[in-house]
Amino acid sequence: MAGEAVPVTLELPVPVRTDLVEHAREGAPEEVVGVLAGERGEDRSMVERSFRAENAADAPTTRYEIAPAEELELLERIDGTGLDVVGFYHSHPRGPLEPSEVDARLAAWPGYSYLVVSLGGDEPTVGSWRWTGDEFREESVEAP
Prior knowledge:
This protein is of the alpha/beta class. The protein has a single domain, classed as Cytidine Deaminase, domain 2 (3-Layer(aba) Sandwich). The protein has three helices and seven strands, in the order βαββαβαβββ. The chain has helices at 14-27, 68-81, 101-106, and strands spanning 9-11, 33-39, 44-53, 84-92, 113-118, 125-131, 136-142. The N and C termini lie far apart (31 Å).
């Protein structure tokens, strides 16, 4: 690796985290998906709202996908609120917390956060990774 990775933080308020976990539980055993909106920065992003989407994947128990028309509609809604797209979230109903190889193969937004809600343990866990265009780099998740 050429140089040290800059630490990245995703600020996730407790009410938004709660909504993401509820969405994951409601959708299980299928993966759920949505868009995170707020203020995006190079080393720190702040989520203010989440926007749920329908999982349009052909195998929704192991993959997620937002249909192009719905994604465009969500991005326009977010733009209309004056917020930035911070990233995306999806669930792993049976774990693990880390993004899968499929997640990496389908990631398309370099510099954006990809948050995962895992229901695979005793309690739900939340983690986030920034997509570099080549790989996911873990970012810390903090409640502001």
